[in-house]
Write a structure and sequence with these properties.
heterodimer, A: alpha/beta, nine-stranded mixed sheet, 6 helices, B: 252 residues, alpha/beta, four-stranded antiparallel sheet, 8 helices
Chain lengths: 380, 252
């Protein structure tokens, strides 16, 4: 069973593609198993093919890079011995990143305490593979700070072992020229709980697709995304949540704001509730705020249910402009229109920031977003 | 001493296939320190008058004037009107996700005064205004009106009025949906601001109940988009006994 909501502003140019359940999607670590990327393919139909060909064709540097890891031990481990425990590539760029990476960066998180920080400032055209592993019963946050001008094709595996409580915050604050195509594979074992928070700012193109497997009974995911796209950027997230085990819970909420001619965001949310995933509860939602003419948001939630026994399943999608009644209320208290617009837009985005749970990072992001919205308002 | 003048005001709204005139010639003058009650049946245009004064874009002024100390209010944007000293306590305040009450109040106060309030005294001022309106301090950290009950939203409107200290406040059915305790709390708030700032009040209501707590100097009966009768507080007492039927018969 599959249902698709198409963006009313865009003709569904992929309508000649066959309906496919997410479960049947092909996976391989071999790039040659996938054709050259094109808008005729389901998973690339809304993506900027020309720009992404920098990663889908040609050489990717796959060696070690400079990284700072604070609060956890790490090492470089040959791909063959460590990769593939949380998922396998489902598209060409992911398979290329997989096959062209020599060693994976393995970050080993245990115990409790201050957040682990992984800081990277990358350039060139490269592939990477990052494995973040939470040992059983670990209660910890990891912040991945990404900067630089890089064109990066990467796979990230996050493994939350039994009973762990993991929060992973991806803070992608790329340089305006950067290209970032990543697949995140998140495996959540028995009674483990993961908060997966994806903050996408900057870059020319960002295409970050988390695939989350609720593998063990009682596993839970809170999947949050926040994106701010302006200046013609393309920011895309295809989120897949697979309820494989019974009594699993998922909550997905992505919110984004768009501004500027040619700016584009894409959100595709697939939730698959497998035949053994009885008693599960899932919800996914995407909300977009369009701040100017000429920007386009696509938002497509899908839900497939293969068992008759679920506790709940729902989805929601809304794309719109600032609410005139919100602006009127603030203006009626003396606040100028541009300040009112900024406040309401910031409020919309802070909904996600509030889930980070690390005060210092929340404050820094709030300031970053306020600055970004200031720039938008002063350009109006 | 300030004066708010409404002169032969005609206002319409867009409806399917054209426009519909709601206000059909309203003339009214309010001075500082005065309380004017506007009373009338549902659909008589009371709220339209309130929102037109505040400048809501839904309402089109076809003719007439609104002057604040001689200055043309209709020429001002919504926020300029507020900064000029007009305040509308809304009947249905909207919820604004992600904007905290404390941030909202500080931003509004800064906009109205033209500079940020003193850090030293502002916190205490907010706390006192909220305590006076029997709102728990925890509301300051909540998002504007989000999850507030009807009564809490109304009290929050009056908290804003206390802090922003307008020259003239329009209270749009502030009494509707309030129980008697909440009505007393809200009315005390209005009376307190009046006493301390000499604010003029335009009190829009369907019922005479609130007039037991906020004593009007003038009562205007609103029917069919204009004032049908004017008088002192005794007119409210008469409405209490007779209702609006008399006017409705006359106007139909």
């Amino acid at each position: 069973m599959s249902e698709t909501l198409t963006n009313p502003s865009g003709a569904p140019e992929w309508s000649d593609l066959p309906v496919q359940t997410r479960n049947e999607r092909f996976a391989s670590t071999q790039p040659e198993d996938f054709p050259a990327i094109s808008a005729r393919q389901l998973e690339w139909r809304l993506s900027p093919i020309d720009a992404l060909n920098a990663l889908a064709e040609g050489e990717l540097a796959g060696g070690h890079y400079d990284v700072t890891v604070i609060g956890a031990s790490y090492d470089w481990v040959p791909m063959a011995t460590i990769a593939g425990r949380a998922g396998l590539p489902e598209d060409r760029v992911s398979a290329r990143a997989w096959s062209m990476t020599n060693d994976a960066l393995h970050v080993h998180v245990d115990g409790s305490g201050d957040p682990v920080v992984i800081h990277r400032d990358l350039d060139g055209v490269r592939a990477g593979h990052l494995v973040i592993e939470f040992t059983p019963n670990t209660h910890r946050s990891v912040i991945i700070e990404n900067h630089g001008t890089v064109a990066l094709a990467e796979n990230v595996e996050i493994i939350a072992h039994d009973g762990s409580n993991a929060r992973v915050i991806h803070l992608n604050e790329w340089d305006n020229r950067a290209l970032h195509a990543a697949s995140h594979f998140v495996r959540i074992d028995k009674d483990a709980h993961v908060d997966h928070i994806l903050i996408s700012l900057g870059g020319a193109v960002q295409r970050v697709n988390p695939a989350i497997t609720l593998a063990g009974t009682g596993a839970r995911i809170e999947s949050y995304g926040l994106y701010f796209a302006d200046g013609g950027r393309h920011i895309e997230h295809q989120v897949f949540v697979h309820h494989k085990a019974a009594q699993t819970r998922s909550n997905v909420l992505y919110k984004g704001a768009l501004h500027g001619n040619g700016t584009r965001t894409v959100w595709v949310g697939d939730v698959l509730i497998g035949p053994d995933a009885t008693g599960t509860d899932s919800y996914e939602a995407n909300r977009n705020l369009i701040l100017s003419d000429g920007a386009r948001a696509d938002s497509i939630p899908n839900l497939e249910i293969e068992t008759g026994d679920i506790a709940g399943a729902g989805h929601a999608s809304a794309t719109g402009r600032l609410d005139d009644e919100h602006l009127f209320y603030l203006q009626s208290r003396g606040i100028t229109e541009s300040e009112a617009r900024r406040l309401v837009a910031l409020g919309f985005l802070l909904d996600i920031v509030g889930n980070i749970g690390i005060a210092e990072l929340e404050e820094r992001l709030t300031a970053t977003l306020a600055d970004a919205l200031d720039a938008v308002e002063s350009s109006a | 001493m300030a004066t708010l003048q409404i002169i032969d005001l005609h206002v319409s709204i867009d409806v399917d296939g054209g426009s519909k005139e709601i206000l059909t010639g309203v003339t009214l003058t309010i001075n500082s320190g005065e309380t004017h009650a506007i009373m009338g049946p549902n659909g008589s245009g009371k709220s339209t008058l309130a929102y037109t004064i505040a400048g809501h874009p839904r309402y089109t002024v076809d003719s007439g004037q609104i002057l604040l100390d001689g200055k043309d209010v209709l020429d001002m944007s919504v926020d300029e009107r507020a900064r000029a000293g007009l305040f509308l306590a809304m009947q249905y305040p909207v919820e604004i996700p992600g904007v905290s009450v404390s941030n909202f109040l500080r931003t509004a106060k800064t906009a109205i005064d033209g500079n940020a309030p003193s850090l030293r005294t502002w916190g205490k001022e907010v706390k006192k205004a909220m305590t006076d309106l029997k709102m728990d301090e925890s509301f300051a950290a909540r998002n504007v009106n989000e999850g507030f009950s009807g009564g809490e939203k109304k009290r929050h409107e009056i908290v804003q009025m206390e802090l922003l200290k307008p020259l003239f406040a329009v209270l749009d059915e502030t009494d509707s949906g309030l129980d008697v305790d909440a009505l007393k709390i809200v009315s005390e708030g209005v009376n307190r601001v009046k006493a301390s700032t000499d604010m003029g009040v335009l009190l829009i209501t369907h019922y005479t109940r609130i007039l037991r707590y906020i004593r009007p100097d003038y009562v205007h009966v609103f029917v069919g988009g204009k004032i049908a009768e004017e008088g002192g507080p005794e007119l409210a007492d008469r409405l209490e006994d007779e209702g609006y039927d008399r006017y409705l018969v006359e106007s139909s």
